[in-house]
Amino acid sequence: MPWRNRVLWILFAISSIPLALMFNSVIIQTQASTDCLIVFAGESFLHGAYGSLPGAGDDMPMMSKFVDSEATLREISKSVSGPTSPQRWERLGLDECVDRYGQRNSVLANYRHAIMVLGYANGSSAQAGWPVAQVRRRFNDEKIENYRSVVNHVWMARPLVRTDSPVGKDNTLALSTDLTAAILMPPSSVKGVDLEMGLLTMDPTMINEPYRSMRAEYCLSERIEIPCRVEVENTLLLAVCVMCGFKTLLCVVVLIIYGGKAESPLATTGDTIESFIVQPDPHTNGVCSLSRVDLASTSKVQDRVSWGSMAMAKQWKTLRRGAGQAVPISVWVFSYILIGCSLIVLTVLSSLATQNTELNASQFGHDPEDQQLLRDKGLTLIPAMLLANTPQLVLSMCYMVYNGLFTRMLAEFEWASFSVRAKPLRTSNGRGQQRSSYRLQLPYRFSIPLIVVSWLLHWLYSNAIYVSIYEGHRWYAPYPHFDLSEGLQFSVVATVVSLAVSIFIAVLPIGLAWVKLPGDMVVAGGNSMVISAACHVVTPSMVTDDEGSEREEKTGIDREGPEALVMGRLKWGEIPTPMQMLSGKPTNHLAFGSEHQDITKPVEGRWYASSAGFRS
C-alpha cells in the first residue's frame, strides 16, 4: 500500500476515536435527587393527629439543631392525611421499605419522605400517641420541661442525605445515607436496631417501660415528580464538530487526489476480475489452479513471484471448501483475540456486578436504582463521559474486525458462485450485461442485519454503564436544590444481557466459516495473485486450431477478445481447449470464460496449467 494511502487510513482511524468517545454524550440529562426524612409515628399520625419534632422517644437537643423541621413535619402530616394521600403515598411492607430506604444503594429520584408506622413489640398499636412525660425518664435539656404534658404522635425522625453526594456535604450535622447509622447516631435514645424485624430497642436510662421496645409494622413512601432537564455539553459538542469537520476535510482530500484519475476503482470482486482479464498479469501465467491455501504455505514473497517464470502443472483435488478458508489464520487469531479479550472483561464485570446486586433487584437502562460507580472519587463530567463511552470505542473496534470476517467470507461466496453458473460481473460501472454495484461487498440481507446488530450492541452498552447527573434537593421544605452530582452508574441487567448477546453474536462467524462454498473453485480469499491466476482467459479468437475456429463460428462470438468477454456472462472452470503437454503430463486449463464455451467443472485427478499455445 502506498505511504499516502497509509497516512489517510491512519488519519481516518484516529479521527474516529474522539467521535466514539464523545458523540454519545453531547446531549445529557439531569435528574432530580433528594434527601429524605424518615418519620417514625403512630397510626393516628396518618389521620392528622398532632406530631412535633423532636418526637416523644427522641433526644430533643439533637433535633433542635435542624431548621425548618417543624414546617416539614406539618407538610408531611397535611399531605398524608389529605384527600390526595392514596395517589401520593404508597403503602409498602417492611421488607420493601427497608430495600428502598434502609440499604440506600440507589438514588432517591421518584420518592422522598417515608413514614414508618410504629406499634409496641407485643403487637399492640399506638393509636393514642405517646405522653412525653410517661415516655421519658430524664431530659438532657431543662428547657424542654414544658413538653412533659404533650401527647406526641411522632416517636422520632431522622433525615437521610442523598447517596449520590458525599455524606455530610453542605450539611450542619454529619448526616448519614444509611438508616441504621442515622437512627443510632449519638446522642440518640435508640441503642439497638433490627430493620429486618422492624425493632427499635431504646436506652433504658432514658426511656420508661413499656416504651423500650417498639416495632415498625409497615410504612408509607411519598411519590414525587421533579422534572428532568436536557442540556447540551458545549465542550464535547465543539470537539465532535471539529472531528466531523476534520473527517470532511479528509474526504475532500481523497476526492482531490483520486477523483480525477482515469482508472476505475477496484471496489468489488467484479472490478478486480475485469481488470485482470483485460490486463492479465504475466507473473501468474501458468498457475491457473493456484489458491490462497497454496500462498499460505509459501512463506517467502520471492518464491511466489518466481512462479511467474515457469508454468506449473497441478493435479486437481476435489476437497470440501468452507467459507472460513477464505480468511487467513492470522486474521482469525487477531480478530478473536480482540473480541475474546473484550468478552473476558465484560464477563468479569458482569460477575462482579451480580455479586453486589441481585439480578432481579436491578433495573434495565438508566434508572436511579442502578448501582453507582466512582461517584465518591471526585470524577468530573468529561472524564466520566469518556470512561462511560470507552466500551463504545472497544465495541466499534470489534465491529470493524467482525465486519471484516463477514466481508471476506461473503466475497468468497460471490467468487465461488462463478463455478456454478454463468453470470455477469458485478462492477462499479456496469457495461454490457454487467450489473452496476449496489453495494461494496456485503449483500443487503447481511449488511442490514449487521448494522442492526451494531446498533443493538451500542444501545445495550450505553445502558450497561452511563453517566448520571443529579440535581440535589434538601430534605426540608421548601426543598431547595443546592448542587449537582456527577458520576457513573451501571445496570446489572443490561450488563448481563449485553454479555449474552455479545457471546451469541461473536460465534456467528465461526458458524459461517463451516458453510460449504458453492461449486468447485479455487479459494481466493480476496488475494489478488489468486484472482489474477484465474483470469488468464482463452477466448475463441485466441484458439489457433480448426476446432477453435469452428466453435467461434457456431457461437457467434466475435474476435474482440477479453474486452468483449468481460461484458457478457462469465463462468469459471475447465476451458475446452486443445490439450498441452507440460513436464510429460497432459494438462488442461482453468479460467473464466464465456457462457458459450461449454465450461465444465474441474475433474478429480486431472492436471491443469496455462497452455503455451494461447495468448494470455
Characteristics of this structure?
elongated; 19 helices; 616 residues; 7-stranded mixed β-sheet; 5-stranded mixed β-sheet; alpha+beta
Number of strands: 21
Shape: elongated
Beta fraction: 15-25%
The low-confidence runs, each spanning 5 or more residues with pLDDT under 50, are 166-174, 544-559, 611-616
Largest sheet: 7 strands, mixed
Calculate the terminal CA-CA distance, rounded to whole Å. 27 Å
Write a short abstract of this structure.
The chain has 19 helices and 21 strands.
Structure commentary:
The protein has 616 residues and is of the alpha+beta class. It has a domain at 28-229. It is 38% helix and 19% strand. It has 19 helices and 21 strands. Strands 2, 3, 4, 7, 8, 9 and 10 form a seven-stranded mixed sheet that branches. Strand 8 (190-194) and strand 9 (199-202) form a beta hairpin. The longest helix has 36 residues, at 381-416. The radius of gyration is 39 Å and the shape is elongated. The model is unreliable at 166-174, 544-559 and 611-616 (pLDDT under 50).
Topology:
Elements: H1 3-22, E1 27-34, E2 36-41, H2 60-63, H3 69-81, H4 85-88, E3 89-92, H5 94-102, E4 111-120, E5 130-131, H6 132-135, E6 151-152, E7 154-160, H7 179-184, E8 190-194, E9 199-202, E10 213-223, E11 229-232, H8 234-258, H9 269-278, H10 292-296, H11 301-306, E12 314-315, H12 329-356, E13 371-373, H13 381-416, E14 423-424, E15 426-427, E16 435-436, H14 444-464, E17 465-473, E18 481-490, H15 492-506, H16 508-513, H17 528-533, H18 546-555, H19 562-565, E19 569-582, E20 585-594, E21 607-608
Parallel strand pairs: 1-17, 2-4, 15-16, 20-21
Antiparallel strand pairs: 1-11, 2-7, 3-10, 4-10, 5-6, 8-9, 9-10, 12-21, 13-18, 14-19, 17-18, 19-20
